[in-house]
Design goal:
This is Early nodulin-like protein. This protein is mainly α. 79% of the residues lie in helices and 0% in strands. Helix 2 packs antiparallel against helix 4.
């Protein structure tokens, strides 16, 4: 159940295209990778902050508010905290990548 040898060779030699790649394309690829890495870094930082910011009130509420004590089990608490972290990660990463792409776009007047 492996990849057939023809497909494997095609994927392995994908870098060698029949068309000559310009240096501008390499620069664009490098900039896009840098934007992606920048977005991942910013998203991870935002997710860490959101994790702390959502876990403290959630855990305090579960210990002090009677309704939360009765209705929020460990799974619900984990879902609340992880939903906030995931949302913060994706929103921040998306905004950072788009901002970096705008910054790297060169507008040429017509």
């Amino acid at each position: 159940m492996g990849i057939p040898s023809e497909l494997r060779d095609l994927f392995a030699n994908r870098k060698t295209s029949p068309l000559i790649q310009s240096p501008m394309d390499d620069e664009k690829i490098l900039r896009s990778r840098q934007c992606t890495q920048e977005g991942v870094r910013a998203g991870a930082k935002a997710a860490a902050v959101a994790c702390v910011a959502s876990s403290v009130p959630t855990l305090i509420a579960v210990r002090t508010i009677p309704w939360a004590k009765a209705n929020l089990n460990y799974t619900a608490q984990a879902l609340i905290i992880s939903a906030a972290s995931i949302a913060a990660y994706f929103i921040t990463a998306d905004k950072t990548i788009l901002e970096c792409a705008r910054r790297n776009t060169h507008y040429k007047p017509a």
